[in-house]
Amino acid sequence: MSIPTGDNLFSPATTAADDLYSFRDNYFPLNPEERVSKLQNQSDLALQILDTIPIEKRKLPLQRATYEYLRGKILDIVPVYKKEAEDHLSKAVKLNPSLVDAWLCLGNCIWKKGDLNAAKNCFTFALSKGPNKNILCQLSMLERKLAQDAENPEEIVDESIKHAREAITLDVKDGYSWYNLGNGFLTSFFVTGAWDHSKLLQSLKAYQNAERDEKMKSNPDLYYNCATVNKYLENYERALTGFEAAALMDPGLNAMEDARMMVLLLEKLEYLLRGQIKAKRLSSLSSSLATVDLSHSYKRATMDLLSEGLNKGIAIAGKVLFFAKNESLAPLYYVLSDSNHTSYVITVYGIQNDAIKEGDQVTLLEPFYRFVDFSWEGKHYQFKSVRVDFVEQVLVNGKCLSPHHAARTSIYAQLKA
User: Where are the TPR repeats (predicted)?
Assistant: First the structure.
């Protein structure tokens, strides 16, 4: 930041404060309490540097404002709300309302207190002083938080995405701004019911742009959120690699638990596909597939005839052998068999869990097919998978699903920042 006093009086303390925040963003010990303790120690050292400035050198309003701002910023380094930090930052903006970074810090401090609307007012006022990528990113992040308890979450998340885009226009190479945009699209995917994969692809592209910025390569949240996107895109190997990388950077993220749950799901699917399906049961189920009336625009096919990706104008039918229960709210996983006794998995998004049951005959229109084939920790996973996004893509026992089977409620998965 520029020092409003016109000299280098506050340079050492400004550098100490900046170094303190850089340390916070890159220090993730195994024990979270150790992190808080270390931050507090580093904060105390930074305050000592600030207090070397003689009192007579910080009496003028602009000097006093800078001093109060730096003191509040340094005190606010810990994760919990500190009234002392808010008091100093409030004094700073009163003495110098143009001190934009003080408004940013004050908004963050008040956010910790839980007063989200007051925090938003701080960010909005700061933006009235001129465009600022850091303010825009924080406002975007705050709006995603506000959306969780709002009646119109989609609109608020759209605003979050708009502000994230504005930040990027100010500095197209800034990795944090791209990361923030990725978070906006990922949140949008969840609040709209976790079915629109185009939002996942937009999120993934933003995260990939973020990774080009060298300073973001030490950000564990980026790896965690990117792994989450890959999880929902069913890029299982990339997701597992990302969760593992995030866990190595920050053990407190609980990313290894996410990886463990994914491996458990994959093992369950493998077990149902191979170990549990007896030939006799498979034969009796698949041979009972009834002929379903379809529009002339669809051609019937079996799994072995599908191409990787979207199969336009194709319809496949299968009997539901198993519902694979898992911890995630979305997607739902089922194991099916077609008339050739080929077993496969369907992952169902945007549809309620009571729409499809074991023993049902399911017809999938324009299936999106993927052949999953990878190894992880010595175990090889290989199976055919079809993704279902809309109720309109599915016929159950020859009948269309009713609109009330569509799941469009907000889903809040674990998302960092």
Answer: 100-133
3-state secondary structure of 352: coil
Average pLDDT rounded to a whole number, residues 154-160? 97
pLDDT tens profile 373-416: 999 999 999 999 999 988 889 999 999 888 888 776 555 555 56
- Residue 379: φ, ψ to 5°: -110, 135
Instruction: Read off the pLDDT of each residue in 266-272 and give the average, rounded to a whole number.
Output: 94
* Euclidean distance between CA atoms 102 and 143, whole angstroms: 20
Encode burial over 22-50: b for 16+ CB neighbours within 10 A, e otherwise: ebbeeebeeeeeebeeebeebbeebbebb
DSSP string, 358-395: TT-EEEEES-EEEEEEEEETTEEEEEEEEEE--GGGEE
For residue 222, the SS3 value is helix
Q: Which two tokens stand for residue 415?
A: 């998302």
How many angstroms separate the CA atoms of 48 and 28, rounded?
Answer: 24
What are the tokens at 286?
A: 């698949």
Q: How many CB atoms lie within 10 A of CB 91?
A: 18
Question: What are 185's two structure tokens?
Answer: 């699209």
pLDDT tens, residue by residue, 354-376: 899 999 999 999 999 999 999 99
The first and second tokens of residue 217, run together, are 């390569």
pLDDT tens readout for residues 189-198:
999 888 889 9
Pairing of strands 361-365, 299-301: unpaired
Q: Between the CA of residue 84 and those of 52, 94, 146, what are the distances in Å?
A: 20, 16, 25
Mean pLDDT of 242-271: 95
**CA torsion angle for 230, 235, 240, 242 (degrees, to 10)?**
-40
> pTM of the full predicted structure?
0.91
Q: Are strands 299-301 and 314-324 parallel, antiparallel or unpaired?
A: parallel
Three-state SS for 316?
strand
Among residues 348, 323, 335, which one has the least CA distance to residue 407? 348
CB 71 within 8 Å of CB 47: yes
CA neighbor of 145 nearest in space, from 194, 178, 184: 184
Interatomic CA distance for residues 174 and 165, integer angstroms:
12
Handedness of CA 102, 2, 60, 131 (dihedral sign): negative
β-bridge pairing 343-348 and 361-365? unpaired
